[in-house]
Amino acid sequence: MSITTAPTPRLPAIFFGHGSPMNTLEQNRYTDAWRQLGAQAGGPRAILAISAHWYTRGTAVTAMDRPKTIHDFYGFPQALFDVEYPAPGDAKLAARVRELLSPVEVAPDQSWGLDHGTWSVLKHAFPHADVPVVQLAIDATQPASIHYALGAHLAALRDEGVLIIGSGNVVHNLRTIGWGGGEPYDWAVRFNDYVRDAIAAGQHDRLIEYEKAGPDARLAVPTPEHYLPLLYVLGARRDDETVHVAIDGIEIKSIGMLSLWVGGARPSSAG
After folding, report:
1. CA gap 37, 22 in Å, rounded
2. CATH number assigned to the domain comprising residue 178
3. pLDDT tens track for 199-251
4. What Rg do the C-alpha atoms of the chain give, in angstroms?
5. What is the pTM of this model?
6. 111 CB contacts (<8 Å, ≥6 apart)?
7. Distances (CA, A) of 170 to 142, 223, 238
8. Maximum CA extent, the chain
9. Does residue 171 form part of some domain?
């Protein structure tokens, strides 16, 4: 008598527009959406996170049993520095990531941990910190096309119980932030719309070659580290899957909060 087991349901891939680290401590429409995304993601056995805040030379993956919580910022209240996200690591997942990305050399890292790009959103999406988390570094020496291709190589993880998340901001210009609030800059709105339109049309080449959007792109993406996590998530999309908008908005005039869900049903928080 043979025993068959049900296949593992394919998990989604999610891009979080994480914004300010203070979102960790706050409840607002973005954090509400993140909580709903976590609830609707199923029960992942592990999470692979690509955060804007591990942007370095070369590719690496965290491979320790207990990644530390990194408070990689300054000038915020002590309550934010007191936040811990004690999720376990997953050395086997780290090894699987290295296998999938071969022949790209991926160094097993024992010193990084989980930076705020990862834990500020997971604190809401998976508040119990009981799902193992592994972070993948973004190689600053590689072009956008390579990062998109790496996402495609990682897509197999979604059929193996692993939730792939990217954390950054589609629009991210700290020099032009309007701390007093007010309407977003016209260029921020236009570039955000450019990204949404390209995603809706399935024109990922426009997103890979985002610089062709001209002055709007140069202002919205003055440096690429917050934009590139989006390409990993879109690269992990299967041809028959839809990309859904979970939440959108532009805060303090130049920080885009667009969050996306790849695959599966439309999130109930979509807007």
Report:
1. 19
2. 3.40.830.10
3. 999 999 999 999 999 999 999 999 999 999 999 999 999 999 999 999 999 99
4. 18
5. 0.94
6. none
7. 18, 11, 21
8. 69
9. yes
